[in-house]
Amino acid sequence: MVRPREPARGGRATAGVYRSRSRGLWVKGETSGATQELVRVDLDCDRDALRFTVRQAGAGFCHRDTRSCWGADRGLGALERRLAARLVDATDGSYSVRIAGDRDRLAAKLVEEAAELAAAETTDDVAWEAADVFYFAVLALARAGVPLEAALAELDRRALAVRRRDGSRVDAPVRDAAGEAT
Hints:
Layout: E1 2-5, E2 13-20, E3 24-27, E4 35-43, E5 50-57, H1 75-88, H2 95-100, H3 103-119, H4 123-144, H5 148-159, E6 164-165, E7 174-175
Antiparallel strand pairs: 1-2, 2-3, 4-5, 6-7
Helix pairs in contact: 1-4, 3-4
């Protein structure tokens, strides 16, 4: 269940309101400060289940004071959160902070790692180099203050495009549905 709440900084936001056997109804974060802002609600294919996408603020959300009740925080989202936190509150000598603080060095690392990924031949090497590319790409996003979700949304937007590229050349022109170069 969600109910409208006044957001901290303008606009309209919604907060998670849950039903608990022990508490009854409660608004997530009213006592802990660990809030959830509703971003989207999706229905599954046969419209009998809901998926709530929320933006969390504050520390732990599980009663065990972890981000989730479903295991460790992992993947690109976890990397994004870790790098963003590191750029705000870094330990002395942080590699991430040093690279993010030097635009030319970050650009060089992105080019270097992309070239190593392109040259990788074994599955282990491809995985290793792709992880490096992801790390530096997410660091570039964090440096610029761009959320990972914005890059993922751009990928989704591109997937919906009608225009296709001729795959025979890397620099081939974009063509519309009639095959005309645009």
